[in-house]
Amino acid sequence: MTSENPPQTRLAVLHGGDLPPGSERIEADPRLASVRYATADRLHEVLPGAHALFVWDLFSEAVEDAWPKADSLRWVHAATAGVDNLMFDRLVGSDVTVTNSRGVFDEPMAEYVLGLVVAFAKDLPATLDNQRRREWRHRETERVGGKHALVIGTGPIGRAIARQLRAVGMTVEGAGRTARTEDPDFGTVVESSLQTAAPGLAEALPRADYVVLAAPLTDATRDLADAAFLARMRPHARLINVGRGQLVDEDALGRALRAEELAGAALDVTRTEPLPEDSPLWSAPGALISPHMSGDVVGWRDELVELFADNLERFLGGSPLRNVVDKRRGYVSGP
Question: What are the transmembrane regions (predicted)?
Answer without folding.
Answer: none
